[in-house]
Amino acid sequence: MTKKLTMIIGVLAVTGLMAGIPALYAESPDGGPTDEQGIRQCDLKGTGYGWGSGRKQRDPEAFFKDLNLTAEQKEQLKARREAGMQQSKAVREQLKVKMQALHEEIAKPGTTRESVNGLIGEINALKAQMFSQRIDGIFTTKQVLTPEQFTKMEEKHKKWMEKKGRGWGNRGGGQKEG
């Protein structure tokens, strides 16, 4: 009985974490003032994001300002960003529905691990799709920028991630030198 209860609690904890991950990457619907690194300070109270006031986001225009983009590059990047946001929004909505279904299924008394495996597979496929879309977006950006611009953008991004204490594959707690 204790083993079964531990397993149920573990599954609920993992699914709760999985449900919260997409919110970390949600885009803000409004703009706001930015600092010198293109970080936008947003007040998201009452918008349904649940983060409260003070969440920082990068403003794409400020982020790309130092890259000396042509008007054509700006338009291409803006179109790519808008298309990516629409794709991402659609997948996030599907993920939200699947996560809700998983939570409802787990809450049922007779639910077994085997009975939720199909939903878990669908959720994992949606998360993989989101990741793949992100990588596609990076390569599309790489095609628009010159090699020098892309290198400079990557350096800015790396600096921003180090400032936040995060990097590729490092969720929230990177080692800081000093």
Describe the structure.
With 178 residues, the protein is mainly α. The chain has a domain at 2-28 and 70-144: Four Helix Bundle (Hemerythrin (Met), subunit A) (Up-down Bundle). It contains five helices and two strands. The chain has a two-stranded antiparallel sheet with strand order 1-2. The radius of gyration is 20 Å and the shape is elongated. Mean pLDDT is 75; it is low at 24-32, 40-55 and 174-178.
Question: What topology does this entry show?
Answer:
Layout: H1 2-24, E1 39-43, E2 53-58, H2 60-64, H3 71-107, H4 113-144, H5 147-164
Antiparallel strand pairs: 1-2
Helix pairs in contact: 1-3, 3-4
Keywords:
single chain, two-stranded antiparallel sheet, 178 residues, mainly alpha, 5 helices, Four Helix Bundle (Hemerythrin (Met), subunit A)
In short:
By secondary structure, this protein is mainly α.
* Order of secondary-structure elements: HEEHHHH
Distance N to C terminus = 49 Å
Number of helices: 5
CATH fold name of the domain at 2-28 and 70-144: Four Helix Bundle (Hemerythrin (Met), subunit A)
Structural class: mainly alpha
Q: Look at the structure and give the mean pLDDT.
A: 75
